[in-house]
Amino acid sequence: MARRKQRPQPRVEEPQFRINRRIRVPEVRVVGDDVEQGIYSTDKALEMANEMGLDLVEISPNANPPVCRITDYKKFLYEKKKKEKEMKAKATKTVIKEIRFTANTDEHDVAFKTKHAEKFLKEGAKVKAYVHFKGRAIIFKERGELLLLQFYESLKDLGDLEQMPKLEGKRMTIFISPKKKK
Questions:
Q1: What's the mean pLDDT in 46-57?
Q2: Which domains does the chain have, with CATH numbers?
Q3: Mean pLDDT across the chain, nearest whole number?
Q4: What would the mean pLDDT of 94-119 be, rounded to a whole number?
């Protein structure tokens, strides 16, 4: 006898927030539009929500007592999603541009790379400048540190130094972030 394949059961998604009868605490703090704010028994708060034709939504379960809002649940979720989308759009993505030097970089090359760094800082990007020491050039650590500090001095009006020159392996690095615009 052939066995029939069982169809997968559709997933019933648990609501993100506890609503109406899922709120199982003796009393709640009620907030919302056109509502007398205060602490009510859960049954009284549910009754108030039902009279208005709305839902009782638990928005802050960790508060004492938990905070609930009388609102339309679908509208509440829509507004929450909309706010999150706005926050994500406003979040700035930091771009880091790298500029590489060696211990023996010439003054003209430093000036040329400084112009690039100025452009990057004006665009709002962070600048990571580093001196890469090849072979035995590591003995000129002081020269590399001096080079990075002079590089920062020429960019002082456009950016702030996040960290002093720091040697990691064969690289000495500094980060310069753009100054905040007023």
A1: 88
A2: 20-86 (3.10.20.80), 96-178 (3.30.110.10)
A3: 85
A4: 89
- Is the pLDDT score of 38 beyond 90? no
Band (pLDDT 50/70/90 cuts) for residue 168 is confident
C-alpha count within 13 angstroms, C-beta hemisphere, residue 175:
8
Q: Is the backbone of residue 27 left (phi > 0), alpha (psi -120 to 50) or beta?
A: beta
